[in-house]
Protein backbone atom coordinates (compact mmCIF):
# COMPACT_ATOMS: atom_id res chain seq x y z
CA UNK A 1 0.00 0.00 0.00
CA UNK A 2 1.26 3.45 -0.85
CA UNK A 3 2.20 5.62 2.04
CA UNK A 4 1.65 9.32 2.05
CA UNK A 5 3.00 12.15 4.14
CA UNK A 6 2.27 13.97 7.34
CA UNK A 7 1.30 17.56 7.85
CA UNK A 8 2.26 19.46 10.96
CA UNK A 9 -0.63 20.74 13.00
CA UNK A 10 -2.80 21.58 10.00
CA UNK A 11 -5.23 23.96 11.60
CA UNK A 12 -2.48 26.08 13.10
CA UNK A 13 -0.89 26.33 9.77
CA UNK A 14 -4.03 27.55 8.08
CA UNK A 15 -4.70 30.22 10.64
CA UNK A 16 -1.15 31.48 10.52
CA UNK A 17 -1.26 31.49 6.79
CA UNK A 18 -4.44 33.50 6.75
CA UNK A 19 -2.86 36.04 9.05
CA UNK A 20 -0.07 36.40 6.62
CA UNK A 21 -1.96 36.72 3.44
CA UNK A 22 -5.34 38.30 3.11
CA UNK A 23 -8.09 35.76 2.96
CA UNK A 24 -9.08 36.83 -0.49
CA UNK A 25 -5.83 35.65 -2.00
CA UNK A 26 -6.37 31.98 -1.29
CA UNK A 27 -9.44 30.36 -2.74
CA UNK A 28 -11.63 28.82 -0.08
CA UNK A 29 -12.29 25.66 -2.03
CA UNK A 30 -12.59 22.45 -0.12
CA UNK A 31 -10.08 20.62 -2.23
CA UNK A 32 -7.40 23.23 -2.05
CA UNK A 33 -7.69 24.93 1.26
CA UNK A 34 -8.61 22.07 3.49
CA UNK A 35 -5.23 20.85 4.52
CA UNK A 36 -6.52 17.66 6.08
CA UNK A 37 -7.29 16.35 2.63
CA UNK A 38 -8.24 12.73 2.12
CA UNK A 39 -4.98 11.46 0.85
CA UNK A 40 -2.95 13.00 3.58
CA UNK A 41 -5.27 12.03 6.42
CA UNK A 42 -3.98 8.55 6.96
CA UNK A 43 -0.42 9.40 6.21
CA UNK A 44 2.33 8.29 8.46
CA UNK A 45 5.49 8.84 6.52
CA UNK A 46 7.57 11.88 7.32
CA UNK A 47 9.47 13.62 4.62
CA UNK A 48 13.22 13.18 4.36
CA UNK A 49 14.50 15.90 2.12
CA UNK A 50 17.62 16.47 0.05
CA UNK A 51 18.10 20.11 -0.88
CA UNK A 52 20.34 20.45 -3.93
CA UNK A 53 21.97 23.78 -4.92
CA UNK A 54 20.83 25.03 -1.52
CA UNK A 55 22.37 28.55 -1.53
CA UNK A 56 21.03 30.38 1.52
CA UNK A 57 18.30 27.81 2.00
CA UNK A 58 15.27 29.25 0.21
CA UNK A 59 13.85 25.76 -0.34
CA UNK A 60 14.44 24.81 3.29
CA UNK A 61 12.51 27.86 4.51
CA UNK A 62 9.79 27.20 1.95
CA UNK A 63 9.42 23.68 3.25
CA UNK A 64 9.08 25.01 6.80
CA UNK A 65 6.49 27.56 5.66
CA UNK A 66 4.53 24.88 3.80
CA UNK A 67 3.57 23.38 7.17
CA UNK A 68 4.58 19.85 6.23
CA UNK A 69 6.31 17.56 8.64
CA UNK A 70 9.77 16.42 7.75
CA UNK A 71 13.45 17.07 7.92
CA UNK A 72 16.14 18.26 5.54
CA UNK A 73 18.61 15.39 5.85
CA UNK A 74 21.28 17.01 3.69
CA UNK A 75 21.82 20.10 1.60
CA UNK A 76 24.44 20.57 -1.11
CA UNK A 77 26.27 23.61 -2.43
CA UNK A 78 29.79 24.61 -3.38
CA UNK A 79 29.56 28.30 -2.50
CA UNK A 80 31.45 28.92 0.74
CA UNK A 81 29.70 32.23 1.47
CA UNK A 82 26.17 30.94 1.10
CA UNK A 83 27.16 27.77 2.97
CA UNK A 84 28.28 29.94 5.84
CA UNK A 85 24.94 31.76 5.84
CA UNK A 86 23.05 28.45 5.68
CA UNK A 87 24.98 27.09 8.64
CA UNK A 88 24.52 30.36 10.55
CA UNK A 89 20.72 30.02 10.30
CA UNK A 90 20.04 26.28 10.31
CA UNK A 91 23.05 25.01 12.19
CA UNK A 92 23.55 22.49 9.40
CA UNK A 93 26.67 22.50 7.30
CA UNK A 94 25.81 22.01 3.62
CA UNK A 95 27.80 19.30 1.87
CA UNK A 96 30.40 21.20 -0.11
CA UNK A 97 30.60 18.72 -2.98
CA UNK A 98 30.10 19.37 -6.64
CA UNK A 99 26.72 17.85 -7.48
CA UNK A 100 28.01 16.78 -10.90
CA UNK A 101 30.02 14.02 -9.26
CA UNK A 102 27.54 12.74 -6.67
CA UNK A 103 27.11 8.97 -6.85
CA UNK A 104 24.05 6.75 -6.52
CA UNK A 105 25.37 5.13 -3.32
CA UNK A 106 25.88 8.49 -1.65
CA UNK A 107 22.34 9.62 -2.51
CA UNK A 108 20.86 6.31 -1.36
CA UNK A 109 22.66 6.57 1.95
CA UNK A 110 20.38 9.48 2.97
CA UNK A 111 17.17 7.42 2.51
CA UNK A 112 15.48 10.56 1.24
CA UNK A 113 12.00 10.60 -0.26
CA UNK A 114 11.89 14.22 -1.43
CA UNK A 115 14.26 16.33 -3.54
CA UNK A 116 14.07 20.12 -3.63
CA UNK A 117 16.33 21.99 -5.99
CA UNK A 118 17.08 25.22 -7.81
CA UNK A 119 19.88 24.45 -10.25
CA UNK A 120 22.01 27.27 -11.69
CA UNK A 121 20.04 29.38 -14.14
CA UNK A 122 22.88 30.71 -16.33
CA UNK A 123 22.51 27.93 -18.96
CA UNK A 124 18.94 29.12 -19.62
CA UNK A 125 18.90 32.86 -18.87
CA UNK A 126 17.51 35.08 -21.62
CA UNK A 127 20.25 37.21 -23.06
CA UNK A 128 22.88 34.69 -21.93
CA UNK A 129 24.73 32.27 -24.21
CA UNK A 130 21.89 29.80 -23.88
CA UNK A 131 24.14 26.74 -23.99
CA UNK A 132 21.51 24.79 -22.10
CA UNK A 133 22.59 21.18 -21.48
CA UNK A 134 25.98 21.90 -23.07
CA UNK A 135 26.81 24.50 -20.43
CA UNK A 136 29.09 23.07 -17.73
CA UNK A 137 26.77 24.62 -15.11
CA UNK A 138 24.00 22.25 -16.20
CA UNK A 139 26.13 19.20 -15.33
CA UNK A 140 24.83 18.98 -11.74
CA UNK A 141 21.21 18.75 -12.83
CA UNK A 142 22.08 16.29 -15.62
CA UNK A 143 23.88 14.08 -13.11
CA UNK A 144 20.80 14.02 -10.87
CA UNK A 145 18.65 13.10 -13.89
CA UNK A 146 21.01 10.19 -14.66
CA UNK A 147 21.02 9.01 -11.06
CA UNK A 148 17.23 8.91 -10.74
CA UNK A 149 16.51 5.61 -12.58
CA UNK A 150 19.41 3.91 -10.81
CA UNK A 151 17.97 4.44 -7.33
CA UNK A 152 16.31 1.55 -5.55
CA UNK A 153 13.93 4.02 -3.95
CA UNK A 154 13.55 7.10 -6.11
CA UNK A 155 12.20 10.17 -4.29
CA UNK A 156 8.41 10.37 -4.15
CA UNK A 157 8.49 14.11 -4.52
CA UNK A 158 10.66 16.35 -6.66
CA UNK A 159 10.38 20.13 -6.85
CA UNK A 160 12.50 22.33 -9.10
CA UNK A 161 12.70 26.11 -9.54
CA UNK A 162 14.38 27.90 -12.39
CA UNK A 163 14.23 30.97 -14.60
CA UNK A 164 11.62 31.56 -17.24
CA UNK A 165 13.06 30.04 -20.41
CA UNK A 166 13.88 26.77 -18.66
CA UNK A 167 10.51 25.54 -19.89
CA UNK A 168 11.80 25.52 -23.48
CA UNK A 169 15.20 24.02 -22.66
CA UNK A 170 16.61 20.64 -23.59
CA UNK A 171 17.55 20.16 -19.92
CA UNK A 172 13.90 20.39 -18.92
CA UNK A 173 12.97 17.97 -21.70
CA UNK A 174 15.56 15.45 -20.47
CA UNK A 175 14.30 15.77 -16.91
CA UNK A 176 10.66 15.47 -17.89
CA UNK A 177 11.28 12.46 -20.15
CA UNK A 178 13.14 10.68 -17.36
CA UNK A 179 10.42 11.39 -14.81
CA UNK A 180 7.70 10.42 -17.26
CA UNK A 181 9.37 7.07 -17.98
CA UNK A 182 9.57 6.43 -14.25
CA UNK A 183 5.84 7.04 -13.78
CA UNK A 184 5.88 10.47 -12.09
CA UNK A 185 2.86 12.71 -12.44
CA UNK A 186 3.83 16.30 -13.10
CA UNK A 187 2.68 19.87 -13.08
CA UNK A 188 4.50 22.99 -14.26
CA UNK A 189 3.88 26.60 -13.22
CA UNK A 190 5.09 29.95 -14.54
CA UNK A 191 4.20 32.47 -11.83
CA UNK A 192 5.42 35.57 -10.04
CA UNK A 193 5.16 36.78 -6.40
CA UNK A 194 2.76 39.65 -7.27
CA UNK A 195 0.13 36.95 -7.89
CA UNK A 196 0.69 35.86 -4.29
CA UNK A 197 0.25 39.33 -2.80
CA UNK A 198 3.92 40.33 -2.68
CA UNK A 199 4.96 43.59 -4.40
CA UNK A 200 7.95 42.12 -6.23
CA UNK A 201 8.19 40.75 -9.71
CA UNK A 202 10.15 37.52 -10.03
CA UNK A 203 8.58 35.38 -12.73
CA UNK A 204 9.93 31.87 -12.43
CA UNK A 205 9.39 28.32 -13.66
CA UNK A 206 8.38 25.62 -11.13
CA UNK A 207 8.10 21.87 -11.60
CA UNK A 208 6.19 19.68 -9.16
CA UNK A 209 6.70 15.95 -9.80
CA UNK A 210 5.53 13.07 -7.62
CA UNK A 211 4.85 9.38 -7.72
CA UNK A 212 1.06 8.96 -7.83
CA UNK A 213 -0.62 7.55 -4.73
CA UNK A 214 -2.84 4.83 -6.08
CA UNK A 215 -3.32 5.29 -9.78
CA UNK A 216 -0.96 4.21 -12.51
CA UNK A 217 -0.30 6.85 -15.09
CA UNK A 218 0.36 6.21 -18.73
CA UNK A 219 4.06 6.80 -19.19
CA UNK A 220 5.75 8.50 -22.13
CA UNK A 221 2.81 10.78 -22.87
CA UNK A 222 3.44 13.83 -20.71
CA UNK A 223 5.19 16.02 -23.27
CA UNK A 224 2.33 15.56 -25.77
CA UNK A 225 -0.26 17.16 -23.49
CA UNK A 226 1.59 19.23 -20.93
CA UNK A 227 0.67 22.79 -20.18
CA UNK A 228 2.20 25.55 -18.12
CA UNK A 229 -0.10 26.88 -15.42
CA UNK A 230 0.11 30.65 -15.15
CA UNK A 231 -2.71 31.04 -12.63
CA UNK A 232 -2.47 28.63 -9.70
CA UNK A 233 -5.85 27.00 -9.05
CA UNK A 234 -5.68 27.79 -5.31
CA UNK A 235 -5.30 31.56 -5.71
CA UNK A 236 -7.76 34.32 -6.42
CA UNK A 237 -6.66 36.93 -8.88
CA UNK A 238 -5.13 39.99 -7.19
CA UNK A 239 -5.12 43.44 -8.75
CA UNK A 240 -1.71 44.98 -8.62
CA UNK A 241 -3.25 48.12 -7.15
CA UNK A 242 -4.28 46.02 -4.12
CA UNK A 243 -0.74 44.91 -3.31
CA UNK A 244 0.79 46.36 -0.12
CA UNK A 245 3.01 49.36 -0.76
CA UNK A 246 6.78 49.04 -0.67
CA UNK A 247 6.89 51.26 2.43
CA UNK A 248 5.73 48.20 4.39
CA UNK A 249 8.93 46.43 3.41
CA UNK A 250 11.17 49.39 4.09
CA UNK A 251 13.93 49.10 6.64
CA UNK A 252 13.95 51.94 9.11
CA UNK A 253 17.41 53.33 8.47
CA UNK A 254 19.19 56.28 10.04
CA UNK A 255 20.12 59.07 7.63
CA UNK A 256 23.69 57.90 7.80
CA UNK A 257 22.73 54.33 6.91
CA UNK A 258 20.48 55.50 4.05
CA UNK A 259 23.63 57.05 2.55
CA UNK A 260 25.40 53.69 2.63
CA UNK A 261 22.92 52.44 0.05
CA UNK A 262 22.96 55.59 -2.09
CA UNK A 263 23.31 54.85 -5.82
CA UNK A 264 26.55 56.62 -6.80
CA UNK A 265 25.97 59.53 -9.20
CA UNK A 266 28.49 58.13 -11.67
CA UNK A 267 26.41 54.94 -12.09
CA UNK A 268 23.49 57.10 -13.18
CA UNK A 269 25.39 59.56 -15.33
CA UNK A 270 27.26 56.95 -17.31
CA UNK A 271 24.02 55.23 -18.35
CA UNK A 272 22.84 58.13 -20.42
CA UNK A 273 19.16 57.87 -21.39
CA UNK A 274 18.68 54.50 -19.67
CA UNK A 275 15.24 54.24 -18.11
CA UNK A 276 16.08 52.95 -14.64
CA UNK A 277 13.26 51.33 -12.71
CA UNK A 278 12.71 53.98 -10.04
CA UNK A 279 10.04 53.22 -7.45
CA UNK A 280 8.60 55.36 -4.67
CA UNK A 281 7.82 53.92 -1.22
CA UNK A 282 4.07 54.35 -1.82
CA UNK A 283 4.16 52.26 -5.01
CA UNK A 284 3.31 48.61 -4.92
CA UNK A 285 5.67 46.83 -7.22
CA UNK A 286 9.41 46.56 -7.73
CA UNK A 287 11.33 44.59 -10.30
CA UNK A 288 13.25 41.36 -9.98
CA UNK A 289 16.53 41.61 -8.07
CA UNK A 290 19.33 39.75 -9.81
CA UNK A 291 22.67 38.66 -8.43
CA UNK A 292 24.43 41.76 -9.84
CA UNK A 293 22.18 44.14 -7.89
CA UNK A 294 24.02 46.55 -5.60
CA UNK A 295 27.05 46.64 -7.89
CA UNK A 296 27.91 48.98 -10.77
CA UNK A 297 25.82 46.74 -13.05
CA UNK A 298 22.74 48.88 -12.78
CA UNK A 299 20.93 47.96 -15.98
CA UNK A 300 18.09 45.54 -15.48
CA UNK A 301 19.35 44.25 -12.13
CA UNK A 302 16.57 45.60 -9.89
CA UNK A 303 14.69 48.74 -8.85
CA UNK A 304 16.07 51.86 -7.15
CA UNK A 305 14.13 53.30 -4.25
CA UNK A 306 13.40 57.04 -4.47
CA UNK A 307 13.64 58.64 -1.04
CA UNK A 308 13.30 62.39 -1.82
CA UNK A 309 11.55 64.96 -4.04
CA UNK A 310 8.57 62.76 -4.71
CA UNK A 311 6.78 65.46 -6.72
CA UNK A 312 9.72 66.21 -8.98
CA UNK A 313 9.42 65.47 -12.71
CA UNK A 314 12.61 63.86 -13.98
CA UNK A 315 13.81 63.06 -17.41
CA UNK A 316 15.95 60.05 -18.38
CA UNK A 317 17.30 62.00 -21.38
CA UNK A 318 18.81 64.36 -18.86
CA UNK A 319 20.19 62.07 -16.10
CA UNK A 320 21.28 65.07 -14.04
CA UNK A 321 17.61 65.45 -13.11
CA UNK A 322 17.81 62.10 -11.27
CA UNK A 323 20.63 63.06 -8.97
CA UNK A 324 18.62 64.75 -6.22
CA UNK A 325 15.91 62.05 -5.98
CA UNK A 326 17.74 60.33 -3.14
CA UNK A 327 18.01 57.11 -5.14
CA UNK A 328 19.21 54.18 -3.12
CA UNK A 329 19.49 50.44 -3.50
CA UNK A 330 17.01 48.31 -1.60
CA UNK A 331 18.91 46.89 1.36
CA UNK A 332 19.69 43.16 1.58
CA UNK A 333 17.24 42.91 4.51
CA UNK A 334 14.48 44.54 2.47
CA UNK A 335 15.09 42.16 -0.42
CA UNK A 336 15.14 39.22 1.97
CA UNK A 337 11.71 40.29 3.25
CA UNK A 338 10.38 40.80 -0.29
CA UNK A 339 11.63 37.26 -1.00
CA UNK A 340 9.64 36.13 2.06
CA UNK A 341 12.63 35.01 4.10
CA UNK A 342 11.74 34.91 7.80
CA UNK A 343 13.75 37.93 8.80
CA UNK A 344 13.07 39.28 12.28
CA UNK A 345 11.18 42.56 12.45
CA UNK A 346 13.62 43.99 14.96
CA UNK A 347 16.41 43.64 12.38
CA UNK A 348 14.40 45.99 10.18
CA UNK A 349 13.27 48.30 13.00
CA UNK A 350 9.76 47.73 11.76
CA UNK A 351 6.63 48.73 13.54
CA UNK A 352 4.05 46.11 14.37
CA UNK A 353 1.68 47.84 11.93
CA UNK A 354 3.69 46.98 8.88
CA UNK A 355 1.64 45.10 6.35
CA UNK A 356 4.69 43.10 5.33
CA UNK A 357 4.13 39.62 6.73
CA UNK A 358 6.31 38.50 9.61
CA UNK A 359 7.34 35.13 8.21
CA UNK A 360 9.18 34.23 11.41
CA UNK A 361 5.82 33.24 12.85
CA UNK A 362 5.57 30.25 10.52
CA UNK A 363 9.19 29.27 10.11
CA UNK A 364 11.05 27.09 12.53
CA UNK A 365 14.25 28.97 11.76
CA UNK A 366 14.59 32.71 11.27
CA UNK A 367 16.86 34.33 8.73
CA UNK A 368 19.77 36.72 9.13
CA UNK A 369 23.11 37.24 7.45
CA UNK A 370 26.28 36.27 9.29
CA UNK A 371 28.28 39.39 10.08
CA UNK A 372 31.24 38.33 8.02
CA UNK A 373 29.19 38.23 4.82
CA UNK A 374 29.92 41.35 2.77
CA UNK A 375 27.24 43.56 1.24
CA UNK A 376 28.02 42.35 -2.27
CA UNK A 377 27.94 38.69 -1.14
CA UNK A 378 24.52 39.31 0.44
CA UNK A 379 23.11 40.84 -2.74
CA UNK A 380 24.55 38.03 -4.84
CA UNK A 381 23.10 35.36 -2.58
CA UNK A 382 19.67 37.00 -2.60
CA UNK A 383 19.72 37.50 -6.37
CA UNK A 384 20.35 33.76 -6.75
CA UNK A 385 17.70 32.79 -4.25
CA UNK A 386 13.95 32.45 -4.64
CA UNK A 387 10.66 33.67 -3.32
CA UNK A 388 10.13 31.47 -0.28
CA UNK A 389 6.40 32.11 0.03
CA UNK A 390 5.66 31.24 -3.61
CA UNK A 391 7.53 27.96 -3.24
CA UNK A 392 5.87 27.24 0.12
CA UNK A 393 2.42 27.65 -1.41
CA UNK A 394 3.28 25.48 -4.42
CA UNK A 395 4.63 22.78 -2.11
CA UNK A 396 1.59 22.91 0.11
CA UNK A 397 -1.17 23.29 -2.45
CA UNK A 398 0.36 21.46 -5.39
CA UNK A 399 3.24 19.06 -4.76
CA UNK A 400 2.00 17.59 -1.47
CA UNK A 401 -1.69 17.99 -2.13
CA UNK A 402 -3.09 14.91 -3.83
CA UNK A 403 -6.45 16.66 -4.17
CA UNK A 404 -4.91 19.08 -6.63
CA UNK A 405 -6.11 17.89 -9.99
CA UNK A 406 -3.73 19.89 -12.20
CA UNK A 407 -1.41 16.93 -12.57
CA UNK A 408 -0.92 14.63 -15.53
C1 LIG B 1 20.16 29.40 -8.31
S1 LIG B 1 21.18 29.21 -6.94
C2 LIG B 1 20.07 28.45 -5.80
C3 LIG B 1 19.89 29.27 -4.58
C4 LIG B 1 19.00 28.72 -3.51
N1 LIG B 1 17.75 28.20 -3.95
C5 LIG B 1 18.76 29.76 -2.44
O1 LIG B 1 17.66 29.87 -1.92
O2 LIG B 1 19.69 30.51 -2.12
C6 LIG B 1 22.22 27.90 -7.42
C7 LIG B 1 23.19 27.44 -6.34
O3 LIG B 1 23.84 26.25 -6.83
C8 LIG B 1 25.20 26.26 -6.45
N2 LIG B 1 25.87 25.42 -7.44
C9 LIG B 1 26.06 25.69 -8.74
N3 LIG B 1 26.63 24.66 -9.36
C10 LIG B 1 26.82 23.70 -8.43
C11 LIG B 1 27.37 22.39 -8.47
N4 LIG B 1 27.82 21.88 -9.60
N5 LIG B 1 27.42 21.67 -7.33
C12 LIG B 1 26.94 22.20 -6.17
N6 LIG B 1 26.41 23.43 -6.08
C13 LIG B 1 26.34 24.18 -7.19
C14 LIG B 1 25.59 27.72 -6.47
O4 LIG B 1 26.67 27.95 -5.59
C15 LIG B 1 24.29 28.42 -6.03
O5 LIG B 1 24.30 28.64 -4.64
Automatic annotation (TrEMBL):
<dbReference type="GO" id="GO:0008168">
    <property type="term" value="F:methyltransferase activity"/>
</dbReference>
<keyword id="KW-0808">Transferase</keyword>
<dbReference type="GO" id="GO:0032259">
    <property type="term" value="P:methylation"/>
</dbReference>
<keyword id="KW-0949">S-adenosyl-L-methionine</keyword>
<protein>
    <recommendedName>
        <fullName>tRNA (cytosine(38)-C(5))-methyltransferase</fullName>
        <ecNumber>2.1.1.204</ecNumber>
    </recommendedName>
</protein>
<comment type="similarity">
    <text>Belongs to the class I-like SAM-binding methyltransferase superfamily. C5-methyltransferase family.</text>
</comment>
<dbReference type="GO" id="GO:0005634">
    <property type="term" value="C:nucleus"/>
</dbReference>
<feature type="active site">
    <location>
        <position position="121"/>
    </location>
</feature>
<dbReference type="InterPro" id="IPR001525">
    <property type="entry name" value="C5_MeTfrase"/>
</dbReference>
<dbReference type="InterPro" id="IPR029063">
    <property type="entry name" value="SAM-dependent_MTases_sf"/>
</dbReference>
<dbReference type="Pfam" id="PF00145">
    <property type="entry name" value="DNA_methylase"/>
</dbReference>
<dbReference type="InterPro" id="IPR031303">
    <property type="entry name" value="C5_meth_CS"/>
</dbReference>
<dbReference type="InterPro" id="IPR050750">
    <property type="entry name" value="C5-MTase"/>
</dbReference>
<keyword id="KW-0489">Methyltransferase</keyword>
Amino acid sequence: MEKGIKRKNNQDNISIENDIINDNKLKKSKSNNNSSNNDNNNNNESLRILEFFCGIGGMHYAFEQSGMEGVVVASFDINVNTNLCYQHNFNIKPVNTIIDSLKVEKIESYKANCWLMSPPCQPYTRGGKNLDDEDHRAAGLLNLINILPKLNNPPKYIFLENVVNFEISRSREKLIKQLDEMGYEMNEHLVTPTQFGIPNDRARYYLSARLPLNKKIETGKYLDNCKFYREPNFLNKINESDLPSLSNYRENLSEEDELKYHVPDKYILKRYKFRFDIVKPNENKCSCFTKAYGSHHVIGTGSFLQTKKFEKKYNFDNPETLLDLGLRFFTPNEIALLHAFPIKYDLLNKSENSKAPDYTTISKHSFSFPEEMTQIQRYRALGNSLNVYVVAMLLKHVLFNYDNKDFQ
